[in-house]
Amino acid sequence: MNNDKVIEFTSFCIEMYAQKEHISGSRVMQIFMANGIITYLSNNYEALHTQGINYILPLIRQRIGK
Questions:
Q1: Taking Cα atoms as reference points, which of 10, 15, 35 lies closest to residue 25?
Q2: Where in the sequence is the domain holding 27, given as residue range(s)?
Q3: Partner of 33 at 20 to 30 A CA spacing, among 14, 17, 52, 59?
């Protein structure tokens, strides 16, 4: 697995979540870190990176409990 691709994908998810929730990227990082989302995205990169953001965001929200 290419770490640069995982980082790029994770950054994309952070940006999209921030935009959708109307919060800052730094706040998203706090939320993601507190809920294990960074690890989740990294561990599931192969399955998730081919999906659209409309598929990924609900998964993230579910893991956060939102």
A1: 15
A2: 3-64
A3: 52
